C-alpha cells in the first residue's frame, strides 16, 4: 500500500473567467485613448499633385488644414464647378481664411501658437489665382508657415 495515489485521468479544470471583465475594459480604454476622430469630411475633390522631394510633418497637433478643389458631385449643383475653399466642414470665401486661421490658432495651447503651420491641400486642377489670394490672406494674419501637401511620386506626371 502506498500513501500516494495517482490522479485519475479526469477532466480539465474550468477556465477562470474572473479576470475577463478587467481585460475587456482595459482594451476598451486603450482603443478609446488611441483612436483619433476624423476632423472634417471632404467636400471638395482633392487629387494632390506629385513631388519628388517631400518631407513628412511630424507633429499633427501644430497643423491647420485648408482644402481647395472643385466641389464633389453632391455639392456641384449648389456651388458650381469652380474651385472652392473648404475650412473644417463648410465652404468659405477667401475673406474668411484669416479669421479661420486666427480662431484655430486660439484653440491651440499657448506654447504651440507660434509654431502653427498652415497646410494647403490643393487639388492639382485648382486655380492658382485662388491659391495666391489665400496666401495674401495668410500674410495679413501673419501665418507665414505654409506647407503644400503632396503625394510622393514623379513631379513630371503633374504636367498631363
Class by SSE composition = alpha/beta
Please indicate the percent range of residues in DSSP E strands (runs of 2 or more). Answer: 15-25%
CATH class category label of one domain? Alpha Beta
Overall pLDDT score? 90
Shape: elongated
Helix fraction bin: 25-40%
Tally of DSSP helical segments = 4
CATH architecture of one domain: 2-Layer Sandwich
Biggest sheet record? 5 strands, mixed
Order of helices and strands: HEEHEEHEHEE
Radius of gyration: 27 Å
Structure description:
With 160 residues, the protein is of the alpha/beta class. It has a domain at 50-159: 2-Layer Sandwich (Nucleotidyltransferase, domain 5). The chain is 29% helix and 17% strand. It has a five-stranded mixed sheet, covered by helices on one side. It has a two-stranded parallel sheet with strand order 1-7. The longest helix has 15 residues, at 20-34. The chain is elongated and about 100 Å long. The N and C termini lie far apart (95 Å).
